[in-house]
Amino acid sequence: MGGREATMVLLDENGIRCDGRKVDEPRRIMIRAGGLKNADGSAYIEFGDNKILVGVFGPRDVHPKHMSDTDTGILRVRYHMEPFSVGERKNPAPSRREIEISKVIKEALEPAVMLEKFPRTAVDVFIEVLQADGGTRCAALTAASVALADAGIPMRDMVAAIAAGKVADTVILDVNNEEDQAGQADMPIGYMPSLEKVTLMQLDGVLTPEEYKKCVEVGIEGCKLVYDLQKKALNDKYFGNGDN
Ligand code: UDP
Question: What is the model's pTM?
């Protein structure tokens, strides 16, 4: 939250945001299930200007062996940003931020995946951010859920994710990079709509208790929209024209 609002109009007098959206309008979202021949499951997502590819491998043997668990399978997640994915070239070495986001996405996916069905094995999720524009953890989590389903991993539900936030003292849905940098709050939410369970919630910024409630409400409604697109992506692959 950079507090640079004075120099940037994040919300104009007609309630229109810096990229032309209304306060409750998500960016354009396109999800494709499949696409990677060598992965057990995969998905590609465009979430506004975010472009992210996810490959899932497993369940498979765990190396090194001591990392395996005799009672359950384990989920391993690697979130990686390409150096060219952002305006100012990102150092290719794994950053603290990438390590944190990998952990956050893993923990958000774990309640959805029936790992107990695969003791001693691992399911690996590789996330490649090709282009980033704010909200990559939500877009990546959304695509990872589709890729896991595409891999045939038994799941309790899919996790759909989107961020709510605040700009110009107003609650908004789906925070873009400019809004993230110059706005007042960013709240990524991951939600399993069929189970009505939140598996990811973070907050950067300051909200009143009322704004907090509104963000949760708006975020969960947004997740339901994302969920419909996740199901559509799987339907298109498995019951559509079958070209992916
Ligand atoms: N970003 C960047 N360079 C970096 C890391 C992030 O330009 O090294 C941008 C990128 O557009 C990202 C945004 O900052 O989407 C917000 O990053 P944040 O850590 O809040 O995670 P995200 O919103 O992507 O989940």
Answer: 0.96
Which of 79, 98, 136 to probe ligand 1 with, by most ligand atoms within 8 A of CB? Answer: 136
DSSP 8-state symbol, 96: H
At 31-62, the pLDDT tens digits run 999 999 999 999 999 999 999 999 999 999 99
> What separation in Å is there between the alpha carbon of 34 and the centre of ligand 1?
26
Q: Which residues line ligand 1 (CB under 6 A)?
A: 86, 90, 97, 132-137, 177, 180
Phi, psi of 63 (to 5 degrees): -125, 130
Closest CA to 57 of 161, 153, 156, 157: 153
Distance between Cα 86 and ligand 1 center (Å): 8
* Residue 71 neighbours by CB distance under 10 Å: 8
Helices 96-109 and 136-150: crossing angle in degrees, nearest 10, is: 50
| Domains of the chain, start order | 3-238 (3.30.230.70)
Structural tokens at position 64: 């090194």
List the one residue out of 113, 3, 131 whose CA is nearest residue 58.
113
CA 159 remoteness from chain centre: 9
- Give the Å distance between the CA of 120 and the centre of ligand 1: 35
d(CA 224, CA 164) in angstroms, rounded, equals 13
CA of 67 to the centre of ligand 1 (A): 31
* Percent of the chain surpassing pLDDT 90: 94
Neighbours of 65 (CB within 10 A): 8
Going by the DSSP 8-state scheme, the letter that residue 184 receives in this structure is S
